Amino acid sequence: MYQISELAEKVGLSRTTLLYYEKQGLLAGTRQSNGYRLYSEKDVQHLRLLLQLRAGGLTLSECKACLNSKVERSLLERRLQQLDAEIAQKQQARTLLAALLGEGSLRPWHQMTDKLAPEAHLDWLQRQGFNEKQALHLKWLSKDMNEHDQYMADFMAVFQALERWGPGSDADSLKALSYVPFAPEKILDIGCGKGFSTTLLATQTQAQIVAVDNEQSALDQLGERLAQQQLERRVTLACTSMTDLPFTSSSFDLIWSECSAYIMGIEQALEQWQPLLTSGGYLVLSDLVWLTEMPSPIAREFWQQEYPDMQTIAKRLTQMQQAGFELIDHYSLSEQAWSDYYQPLKARIAELKPSMPSSMAIADLEREIALYEQYFGEFGYQMFVLKKGA
Ligand SMILES: C[S@@+](CC[C@H](N)C(=O)[O-])C[C@H]1O[C@@H](n2cnc3c(N)ncnc32)[C@H](O)[C@@H]1O
User: Fold this and answer.
1) How many CB atoms lie within 10 A of CB 45?
2) Which of 276, 287, 249, 320 shows the shortest CA–CA distance to 188?
3) CA distance 123 to 132
């Protein structure tokens, strides 16, 4: 026979726990005349069986039911389902922690977080030591932060050699310019890349132009192109971020942004750039949009990952109106605009692939082109010509 402290030591539980079990009717010692309780070997075994059932994740009352009568299958099945759900949750937690430590891919997590909390996600990336440019790239490309450097290096290896960094054509840009009813005097070209639009605006207007991009190499090439065409005196190049433009309000009568506003988010861009326009000034921007309310699941899934904030035209128009813009016109970029972008991109990929067979950046670009070829018509680039309201 054992006293309670001896029993506690034997089964590895505290005295308080045993007293609690006793109160719950899970243990019943025999009380001595001196008030002490004594427990038999049978009690020890009963407790051990109880602990075995506890190890299966059963609650005390479930254990009691199992000990006192025939085991109820439905109860065990319910418990098993709960345990499976808990294990799956823990596995997810483990995967996330391992990925944060660089032992796996964080891509799905970034995609989800960017959708749920885009600004907090960007701030957090910066707290992890990425500068704003890197953080925006991560966000913009929805890519993995542990693979970021290699991914960006491959990405730049592809794009450095290309002229256009997004769909667009001179004809589409000129059409947008034709809607501007005045001769612009000060133009801001945001996310200009190598400056197709900048060059066009410089040749088609007499305006002073500021061309902004945060990629110095692109601006350098634009500088050379402008010099060749003797346009450099009317264009100032600024290597700075579109999220924090160093201009005072009402500085420009035309803001131009082809395939770039999405990088910081269209709504944010509308809100932050609007004050830079003079009253009645124009904003021209292009954005990838859904052309149908019911895209194919594959196309939807792809763009949900690559551009989570992609919207229908109607939704964008509402946002533009809410941001204080009047719609002048909008139209889908021509197929020419896409082939001007994708044909050289395809050729460049074919050139680089043999030397970079396992590049994730290349694989992603190939997927994008294949998707475009199969599902084009469900989505497209839309040019929006907007006027700042009074
Ligand atoms: C898809 S490309 C479009 C370039 C150009 N408008 C064209 O159509 O060829 C996006 C451009 O935005 C630039 N960019 C990315 N993040 C930026 C930022 N935070 N501020 C300014 N430019 C940025 C990139 O360097 C790139 O040139």
Assistant:
1) 11
2) 276
3) 9
Separation of CA 384 from chain center: 24
Q: Which atom of ligand 1 is nearest to the CA of 192?
A: 6
**Ligand 1 atom nearest to CA at 218:** 27
Sequence-separated (6 or more) residues with CB below 8 Å from residue 90: none
15 sits in the region (left: phi over 0; alpha: psi -120 to 50; else beta) called alpha
Q: At what angle do helices 170-178 and 335-352 cross, to 10 degrees?
A: 150
Rounded to an integer, what distance in angstroms lies between the CA atom of residue 259 and that of residue 376? Answer: 17
- Least Cα distance to 234 among 186, 195, 169 occurs for 186
* CA atoms 220, 226, 227, 231: torsion sign: negative
**Pocket, ligand 1, Cβ cutoff 6 A:** 136, 164-166, 168, 191-193, 196, 212-215, 218, 241-243, 258-260, 263
Pairing of strands 37-39, 208-213: unpaired
Residues 335-374 pLDDT 10s: 999 999 999 999 999 999 999 999 988 998 999 999 999 9
Distance 28 CA to ligand 1 centre (A): 76
163 close to 196: Cβ distance less than 8 angstroms: yes
For the chain, list the strands marked E by DSSP. 2-3, 30-31, 37-39, 186-190, 208-213, 235-239, 252-257, 277-290, 311-312, 325-332, 379-388
HSE-up of residue 313 (Cα within 13 Å, Cβ side):
16
Q: What is the pLDDT of residues 303-336, one digit of tens each?
A: 888 888 899 999 999 999 999 999 999 999 999 9
CA angle at 370 for the pair 365 and 372, rounded to the nearest 5°: 95
